Amino acid sequence: MISILKKSIPYLLALVLIFVLWKFIDFQMLIDQFKKANLFFVVVSMLIMAFSHYLRALRMNMLLKALGNKTSDLNTSLAVFVGYLVNLLIPRMGEVARCTVLNKTNSIPIQVSLGAVITERVVDVLCLISFLIFGLFIEYDVVISFIKTIISSKNGTINSTILFFIIFLLITLIIIIYLIIKNIDKILKINIFKKIYDVIIGFSTGMMSIFKVENKVFFFICSLGTWICYFLLTWVLMMAFEPTMNLGWKVGFITNALGAVGMAAPVQGGIGAYHFMVQQVLVVYGITPELGLVCATLLHSTQMFTSIILGIIAFIILFFITKINNKII
Asked: Measuring CA to CA, which residue among 312, 104, 67 is closest to residue 213?
């Protein structure tokens, strides 16, 4: 029951947020803006997203190589593509899917590759924090206005709903962590938690891989390059749609950074949370809340569509790779 509830919560949150979005979005405006979209910029953004996944694959390979495991850039890239697709279908299972693919194609232990993925996530958090700090530096007044807009919002619609969930989840997470730390000795006496602890120890082997990476400069370049690609694809996508095409790179940077915070929220595919963050950023820049929500939906749906296309292509290629490998064996 606990497992079912844990897996259901992101879906339930997403459904609630979809309901809120559905109630307040102007679908006629959405369709009109979609028809006016510049497909050239949409395609360019898709290519940038694919390249960002490739950089993530290179970084993953460096971590795995540091642990004595080798895989090709192609296999790891396909694993990353599949991981993003699975994340859209099953909450937070994309990382497991990525490691499962590498286990099938290169016999890399799942626990080790999961440890490497966790290391990646830690690095991503540091990159996100760096981007937020840089965003505060280049657009201090805008970021402060963004915060004030959220706090002073009195419309009782999407703003209060999403803020309630974010605050509730943060408080719940803090309480859970506190209780775990306080009762760690008692918890480890329970068999199932002891097994979980052993798995975490196994993960630590993969997590330590960052200290064994041979070319740390290239690892840093791949990490920074991945996030620069995220910024570029957001900015390029904004140029594809009429209301945001002339807002400039600073707006694209702030939108990407704060949108990434929304994507990190524990809701399925960042649905709702991403829309809220992007909408509020655009409101600060003078776009109406209705049009801001439409633009946020266009940005989000385009990125999700790209993830689906890349994931399907990766699944097909992996099918043939696995079939060929089986014949060789």
From this structure: 67
